[in-house]
Fold this sequence. Notes:
The complex is a heterotrimer of chains A (219), B (672) and C (315). Chain A has helices at 3-26, 30-55, 59-86, 98-120, 126-129, 131-147, 151-173, 178-206. Chain A is mainly alpha-helical and 219 residues long.
Amino acid sequence: MTDSALSQLLGLAIGTALVCAYVVLWRSRLISIVRAIAVQGAAVAVVALTLGLHEHSVEPVAAAVGVFALKAVIIPMLLARWIRQSEELREVDPLINIPASLLAGGLLTLFVYATARQVANLGSDSASRAVPAAIAIVMLGLLVMTIRRKAVTQVAGFLLLENGIALVAFLTTSGLPLLIELGGALDLLLVVLVLHVLAGRMVSAFGATDLNQLQELRD
Amino acid sequence: MSAGTWGLAFAAAAGGIGTIAALVTVGPTRRWLVGILSGLSAAAGGATAILVLVGHGPVTVHLPQILPLAGVELNLDALGAVFVLAVAIVALPASIYGIGYTAHGLNRRSVQAMYPLFIVSLLLVPAAASVSTLLLLWEAMALTSLVLVAAEHRERSEVREAAWWYGSMSHLSMIAILMALVVFAGHAPGETFEALRMSGRHLSSSTRSFVFVLSLVGFGTKAGVVPLHVWLPRAHPEAPSHVSALMSGAMVNLGIYGVLRVTWDLLGGGPIWWGITVLFVGVTSALFGILHALVARDLKRLLAYSTSENMGLILVAVGAAGIYSSSGNPMLAGVAITAALLHIVNHAAFKGLLFLGAGSVVAATGTRDLDRMGGLLARMPVTGAAFAVGSLAIMALPPFNGFVSEWLLLKSLVQGLPASSVAISVTMPIAVGAVALTGGLAAAAFAKAFGTGFLARPRSPQVEAAAEVGGTMQTGMVSLAVACLGLGLAPFALLDVLRRAGAALPSLWGGEPVRSVGVTLHTGGLTGSLSPLFIGGGLILLVVLIPVVLRLLGVAGRRRVAENWGSGRSLQTARMEYTATSFAEPLQRVFDDVLRPEFDLAVTHTAESRYYVEAVRYRVGIVDGFETHVYRPLIRVAKRWGEMSRWVQNGSIHRYLAYLFVALLIVLLVSQ
Amino acid sequence: MTVPAAVGALIQVTLVIAVAPILTGLMRATRAKLEGRAGPSVVQPWRDIRKLLHKERIKPEYSGWVFLLAPRVLLASGLMVVVLVPLITTATALGGSGDLFAVVYLVLLGTVFLVLAGLDPGTAFGGMGASRAITVAALAEPAFLLAIFALSVRAGSSSLATIVDSVLAEPRSLASPGSLLALAAVSVVVLAESGRLPVDNPSTHLELTMIHESMVLEYAGPDLAVVELASQVRLTIFLGLIANLFAPWGIAVTTHPADLAIGTGVVVAKLALLGVVIATFEVFVAKMRLFRVPELLTAAFILAFLAITMSFFLT
């Protein structure tokens, strides 16, 4: 593949990842959110793969395979099963309504674009230029975690955050050392499992996974 | 004396004679004399403006003997002339309209005497060429309009409240402008604009920013920008309608004039955040204004909020021009400033028209409540048609004038993007999104105003009995409607002369931003052209041709009038129609978070059984959030301070003497 | 304005008028086939129009000139767009008379008149349709204009012919995230503005769920024929716009008769293809609840917004 074709592929993959983050903000059906997360995981894998091919190194390719298996297949499957079990199909009543949260997301992206350049002092090649998009995904993940109530959407927000960080790492240094990457992945799996157990307990205690009800534990 | 000087002198003289005539005559003579003389004054002002715009300017007048110490300095350059032209476009038809309109209880000495003075001050403010002259004329404008707003204070208590709000906000505006200009003049060799202009660029950046911020607050209040707009939706509806037309079509523009004159002429432009600030003030005003216009039930309140919106759009263009100019792109700034100036003239025409139309409705029906109107087009065909033209123009639809300036505005925002500056690439998408949303909501708001006010069937007896207004009022409205169409089809005539106005703002102008080749407009920067004459003319031609073609196809020409089908419903009453409130309800629901409406649903049951509903009463009220959350608390605080200061001011002459004594001692102490 | 260019524009107008009802017929036939019905022939819309033209003209009791003018303005604004848009050839000099922004406002003009016509007879259903239609139009406009913004930035021009030419010169630019997002945004806007599923159901006859159809309930005979034709023309323009902005291959760049003939054939094929795709899509989706539509349009707005910002991030 030529360089320009590679950079175009890179652009498409990162674009897909960013759009998936907005899909998480937009859709209220939990299963659609999980699908968007899966597609985003695949897009992150494609980014890693592209960079690996570009630099003819094996490590990012291996990371890509790992990312794909974990983020595009295993975790989404776990989440989907969880949704089927809990019978909570929709994020019914988000803290901010959907059009407003979409607009907030749009402004957030512009804000990141305006500020990230000075922070990161980036080069002008296509990988560096895409870093703000990755940071925007991190921010959108945080946004999702702040404005959504359900446990599944919390996990989705966390996964967005994770994917964004992974993207930043790939784009700036062409990938973390494989070991760290693996450690991070295991952490992620752990978080999902812990939240799964927590959510199960919450359902049996409160009948739903609305995280706001955790406030009651304070007293 | 040059022709221009004669023009200004004639305008002032006609206004002065009008005031004297109002004082000494009575009855219909007074109405006619005031109307004709004010109209002549406006016409003379307009003619002078055109003279200046086609290149016979600037018009300069020194009257050293009038004001002590300073004297009156007038200098009408091309920039001011655009605003004088906008004033004249509304003032001439409004004065003719006023002849008929004031017949209904408004032919009082105080009101009629102020009207010509108000027009003269509006015409002269853009010609002021020194700080003291500007402040003098500005205050004259504020005071005369205040008297006019309060015209009907004996009839309705809301008028008094509106006048209070208007008076207070006018004073706030005056104080801010006074501080800005006095500080500015203090750092300059003199107080004429010439002197300010020479020193403007050399002031320290903190002084410059101080002057910018205060003048933006002061002039912005006059322009009715959010959050300084609170007087506008109160004062404009309560004023007599020909005065509302002048205030909304002409007076608010002078706020924009002040911002342009002080910031980009006298100070000579500034850092990029000035432009960004102005742009975001504009974006906020545009969106907030149009959202409240959308849900307003009071026809004139709707128009007033839409004035806030349009001033917002103009400030978006001005801010964009500032951003372009600060990032070294004067040609793009020129496109934006052309859009702003063109929209000012266009807005004057269609907003004047809409207020005159609303005035006719009020005169004929006695109500401003859209939910009680309906069916007025059949009862008032001329007013209805004129209001339709104004609505289509303000929706920015071809072939009317709003279309051209909105096109230019969008074009000026879009074309900046290939530039690499971060500020431009972050602000412009937001600006385009906001302007586009404003445009869509404006279409909804005015479809509501015309559709539920003038179409279908009347929803109240007094509207049922409405009749068309008299000849002078019709003349006023029709002439503005013609202006809307003319400016929509042939804007190139005006665009060519706007070039001179742009040249008066050298920091915002470069190259040839907008040029017309034949009847087609081209903009610099991003290519893409528009021929309003072709599009408008083509539309009109097609609308005429379609029935001809149908006739050729053998379609019968006559229509049989039949009962409404209404999906097979046999009974049709006006109570089944969509009202203005219900028409806007879906959009109101979408913007719930911003508008925060208050609902009230009351269901009463019959006495026999609570399963039978007797009546369902649904009430929705929307209040201006800034008023309840910003101004009310401020007023409370001010009141508390007022109460506290009462013990200082207790009427005892001895205590006042003691104050004087203490003050003298402090002065002696400080001057050591 | 040169003679061949004017001829090109005239051919476009004739073609669109001829093809528009057949496109609608094709979409209905596709749907019928997929749903296992026999369905009417593809030229049925033309037969309907012919039949309607020979019926009596009726004016509802309380309506005025707005009601009578609306069908004409709707059709005239549609035809005006056809003159400006490059469908067969980019070489129509008339294209210089208006760019994409002008197209948006011409479309809005038609919508506004239809809304007013819905209010004019004073029936409950007309008002309901009008209120809903203006809601959709008001929220679709920002998405539409931002998508145009994204497209014009890419081509350095808001002129339709230049945008099409720039894609022809550099087809790879289409595969950029910016272009794809703009395509997605424009598609949503088109579905909303032309009253297709999932925003409005063009084939429903249940008044409470309708938008477009309930505004035109009071029209009959020749006036209804004009309204129908105008709606079909609008749909054709929208699909033609999508086809030529995002897949312009085959469009004539000169006014040579042979090129024009090829251009005509290609655009008809593209329209047919898009029509079949949309009809197939409509079989699988249900109509959205009205208050979910703003969410869809906000999403379109954000897509268009991203289309612009992505051009900063990504090549």
